[in-house]
Amino acid sequence: MREAAGGAAHGPRFHRVLLKLSGQALAPAQGVGIDLDTLASFAHEIKDVAALGVQVAMVIGAGNILRGSDYEARGMDRSSADQMGMLGTVINALAFQDALERVGVTTRVLSAIAMQAVCEPYIRRRAVRHLEKGRVVIFAAGTGNPYFTTDTAASLRAMEIGAEVILKASHHVDGVYDRDPLREPGATRFDRLTYLEVLERNLKVMDSTAISMCKDNNLPIIVFNLRQTGNIRRVVMGEPIGTWVESGR
Asked: I want to staple 63 with a disulfide (CB 3.0 to 4.6 A). Which of 24, 92, 169, 221 is the partner?
């Protein structure tokens, strides 16, 4: 079993990670779209992590632009709504690529939906090669299929590239709680959970398909607060922050 603490003086604990961001983390305080100042701040954090020699891949949601589920609820065909959401993730990925390259981080966007005029098609070996060359890789367009969330895409891509951990960055909370801490101040935060506990208690870590995939492949997940500057680096260095989800406690 992995230990939460350790190793900061000996370099990063993880050397290939998959960072999962919600699109909402990029949204301005009011309305929809992309807050460029927030984007620039995140880019600097990822630059610091990449400078440690950590290979960083990313999956970004599209909640700041649109949610397919919202359109489906209003009568739109589920497949069409999900495809719109996938295109929203491409917009976010391109914006993040621009922000990273502005601070000197070479970045590639690989899309599950072919659109060669703006980004590369997703090919697993190509993604791994980019990571080996020190490039940040952003996976866009989810899995390329409707009915699957970006959480599931993150789990799938993490396993395909051999990531050691999924870093689930939250823009609201600092880990996993037994209840919504924003609505119930007395909610209790967990330091560690098993995959089964997450599924049985219906805790909102990632969707059940993503959790099941991680469970079947023993891929740990760390849920932490993105808004605290330096937290991505702290997690990569092995500091005991957030909530660890893994096979046993």
From this structure: 24
